[in-house]
Amino acid sequence: MTEIVMDQTPPILQGPSDKERKYDRQLRLWAASGQAALESANILLVNSGAGTVGVETLKNLILPGIGRFVIHDNALVDEADLGVNFFLDDTCYGKPRAQCLASLLGELNPEVDGDWSPKTKNDSLGSLLKQSPLFTAIMYTYPINHVELETLEQYSKEHKTPLIAIHSTGFYSYFTFRLPGTFPIVDTHPDETATTDLRLLSPWPELVEFANTMTKDIDSLDNFEHGHLPYVVILLHYLNKWKATHNGTYPSTYKEKMEFRQLVRDAARTDNPEGGEENFDEAAAAVLKTVAPFSLPSGLKEVFEYEHKDPIQERSTFWIIADAVKAFYTKHGSLPLPGNVPDMKAQSKVYVQLQNIYKAKARKDAAEVLQTAQAIAGTGREMDPAEVDLFCKNAAFVKLINVEGGGDTAPLGNKERLQQVLRQEMANDQVAEMTLQPMSLFPIYLALRGLAHCGNASSDKTQIVEAVQSLLSDNLSSEEYGDLNEKLGNVAEDLARAEYGELHNISALTGGMVAQEMIKIITKQYIPIDNTCVFDGIRSRTQVFHV
Amino acid sequence: MSSPEVLPDSEAKRWKYLNNVRTRPGAFVDPEEFDGSTVVENMDKIKIFGAGGLGCEILKNLALSGFKDISVIDMDTIDISNLNRQFLFRHADVGKFKAEVAAKFVERRVKGVKITPYNCKIQDFDEDFYQQFQIVVCGLDSIEARRWINATLVNMANCENPDSMKPLIDGGTEGFKGQARVILPTMGSCIECQLDMHAPRAAVPLCTLASIPRQPEHCIEWAHVIAWDKEKPFPQLDKDDPEHITWLYQKALERAKEFNISGVTYSLTQGVVKNIIPAIAATNSVIAAACCNEALKIASSCAPFLGTPGEGEPNYMMYSGNDSIYTYTFKHEQKEDCPVCGMTARVLKVNPTWTLEELIESFATLPEAQLKKPSVRAEGKTLYMQLPPNLEEQTRPNLEKTLEQLGLTEGTELAVTDPAFVGVVFNFSLKFA
Questions:
Q1: By three-state DSSP, how is residue B71 classified?
Q2: Is B159 a residue of the active site?
Q3: Whose CB among A260, A396, A531, B291 lies 3.0–4.6 Å from B171's, allowing a Cys bridge?
Q4: How far A63 CA sits from the closest chain B CA (Å)?
């Protein structure tokens, strides 16, 4: 019996490799392409203070397999480190903290290269940056000294490197992503239910013919055939019927859609054991979502309307493809068809045929976009069909992060911008108070900025509040300050007890979020925050701000 | 083996950052009600236990939060696919027990902490065992296990004995999403009250698998459920055996070819058969830390915690990280008719012409019951018992009778038990449709 079975079971040749097995759970999120991007990433951490939050972030990047990391940390390991940082032990006393961290973090994943700095008195952050291979992203934690911060900002400007600031003290934390320019994401991984684009209101000839063939004698179909009509076909058939009795128009008002839905429901046969037909239930359930006129999604609109500063030759392939899709849209009044069809009750053969009709149209549209893109790019640049396909499939969900310029928005990070956000948040709070919604976490962000401004562990509540006031400058009215000071005062008081120290849980949580965001930026999948996330460990809440 | 005693002076230096916060009231706790001088001593004595896939993160976090007496329960052994996030384990540890390896690692790394591992299921222990703990932190990977520990703790809770009320902190993740919640047994919403937050996934209808497959998943499920049963290539399906998965994969591939369906891969086969949920270190970090943060606040009282009893006080945090970062922290209300912690019976809509068998089968898919092997009694009379075998045989004839025939009327109260939840009685009140 065993022998027979051995003959029948093919060898596990096409089974996964060790690496694929190790990374299986994450490959299901970002696939081999995302993994390849991670494995090419070179990450620098400039560590300081209690030194934990950046290390917890690195842990969550090393485990999934980034290519390389470097830790720059001027501290020597002391007793207090052992009560907060998991990646140090008591053999590390007095040693360079960077060295011990690199070693214990390195154990997490033998496939990742690690290094540390400064190794000698002559090594500085500046010399590290000069000698090291280009960094994919750099993160630093507070209390970083301002000379090193300036060095990082210089490097980031020169090499267009994403810079991530992280601050974790007591029960509070925030982190900010400074990206080198407008950052487009194509592979946003929208919810499955959102991605259905069936084009029922603008079917193309092949789809029309298919549906007509299946439904031309719909009433004389036997129960099996009738009960296995794909709902796409059912809706197309009844939309035609509606058009014929409504002057060639489709249902548009809510009332009309309800009427149409009832029309479809009434068409189901009930003289059977189930008392109805599942495919007709599916059709009725799909009416509101699919009988809807097309409108250009806001994310894509922003892409189409983006004002470039660089000439075409310097733009990334994303923008070239975007231009080609824009041309497609201008010409046809619709986007390239994504081509997926949701599952539905149908005979296998029929379903596959329907799927192929959608796939064929999608391929045709993508081919047209590719041709246009190639024409825009010119002869010097080869456009990648796979990249065009990805864009076409995801066109409705494309997103721009960190859009530069843009109307009256003050430059990120400066006083005017802080005041703008603060005013907006205080206004939101007034509404929130009345509607029993949670309050803004912006005072936490300000308090942490204020603490960093003070720069030392003995900062008390008053000093932190004064530092925030100087950050915001004098343009706020005393009434506005009054409003802010109460909320700010509580946060500052709670912060002060921590004496600039980190709580492990808060740093571990923040490290999880920062790593997640870095993975999105590196893999260019899923939608990153834009651009600052604050965590309130008292109430267990986060909030994202654009500062 | 415990690590060498750390000198008190260096203890103070070592735990400086933690003590600065946990021994001071901060801005949100009334300083009159807070005694910082006893916090460290109290927390040193607390027995806390953690379990589940978030275990590595939970152990690390609890050890660095000042807990000194930690127990960990896990029946699993280490698999290579754990290594991308369960960071206390290395390649060389594959095959060993998780609880043991994790406990040893953290004890060595964080001196002064005692960690007691148990290589078994949480269900292998009874109330007497759990009585010793003050706080329970769970990162389990099944709803059943969660419901079990919840029912156990709620059953133990007696408001006349404060020591019997043990906070249950529960966390779970799926890809970029997760939740952390705090349950104070009997004092607020419990896991059973919150069952509607985890709707069971609809199974693919048998007729789709058998005759009209359309998706690669249908072909795989067909191989898993129908072909395997028919051909029995191995005596017992082992979902972790690559040879078994390969067999299913090839069978699914053949079927897909027959119906012209594309997309069957080894990875998808594994995913469907094992119901694999994607998982990464980052999300696990967030959720485990959120849970342990609450444990620290509960143990020290140094700040308000999730699950504080009271009007409008949140007890549940939902986290989502795939599209920007969102948390939704809210209060899930206790249900009066919760079968585990509620006072009243839950209304069950039934048809009096149903047979007892049909009623019993419906308990499995009912979202507010989800009981797979229920035994039923009605107002003192035994209707059907799954166990023991002689009682099952005796009550079997009742299965064919209709509810009407059995004398059940509108308002009859049913007492339902299930071997997965020893000691819990699910009370339902019949409402005839």
A1: strand
A2: no
A3: B291
A4: 5
DSSP A249-266: ----SHHHHHHHHHHHHH
Contact B84 A83 (CB under 8 A): no
The rounded distance, in Å, linking the Cα atoms of A517 and B322 is 9
CA of A452 vs chain B CAs: smallest distance (Å): 17
| Cross-strand partners of B47 | B69
Residue A9 has pLDDT above 80, yes or no: no
Confidence of residue A4 (pLDDT cuts 50, 70, 90): very low
Amino acid letter for position A462: T
pLDDT at position A408 over 50: no
Inter-chain contacts counted by CB atoms under 8 A, chains A and B: 260
Question: Residues A90, A93, A97, CA angle at the centre, nearest 5°?
Answer: 105
pLDDT average, residue stretch A118-142: 97
Cβ-count burial of A427 within 10 angstroms (0-12 exposed, 13-18 middle, 19+ buried)? exposed
ipTM score: 0.94
> Using one digit for the tens of pLDDT, what is the confidence trace for A240-283?
999 999 999 999 999 999 999 999 999 999 988 888 999 999 99
Q: Strand A42-47 and strand A137-141: pairing?
A: parallel
Element of type H or E holding B147: helix B143-156
Chain A contacts in chain B segment 189-208 (CB below 8 A): 208
Tell me the DSSP string of A163-206. EEEEEEEBTEEEEEEE-SS-EEESB----GGGG----TTS--HH
Distances (CA, A) of B246 to A31, A542, B213, B241, B272: 21, 44, 20, 9, 13
Query: Taking every pair of C-alpha atoms in chain A, what is the biggest distance, in angstroms?
Result: 90
Q: Which of A90, A505, A516 sits opposite B283 (nearest CB)?
A: A516
pLDDT digits (tens, 9 = 90+) for A18-51: 999 999 999 999 999 999 999 999 999 999 999 9
Residue B200 has pLDDT above 60, yes or no: yes
Strands A183-185 and A113-117: unpaired
CA distances from A113 to A66, A116, A125, A512 (A): 9, 11, 19, 21
Q: Mean pLDDT across the stretch A168-179?
A: 97
pTM for this prediction: 0.93
pLDDT tens-digit series, residues A287-319: 999 999 889 999 999 999 998 888 887 889 999
Chain B residue with CA closest to A507: the answer is B289
Q: Which of A496, A509, A167 is nearest to B25 (CA)?
A: A496
Residue whose token pair is 């039934």: B350
- CA–CA distance, A279 with A264 (Å, rounded to integer): 11
In A, minimum Cα distance to B268 occurs at A28
Cα torsion B18, A458, A541, B185 to 10°: value is: 40
Residue B271 has pLDDT above 90, yes or no: yes
- Whether residues A544 and B324 touch (CB distance < 8 A) is answered with yes
Q: What are the φ/ψ torsions at residue B50 (nearest 5 degrees)?
A: -125, 150
Kindly give the pairing relationship between strand A113-117 and strand A68-73: parallel
B284 part of contact set with chain A, CB < 8 Å: yes
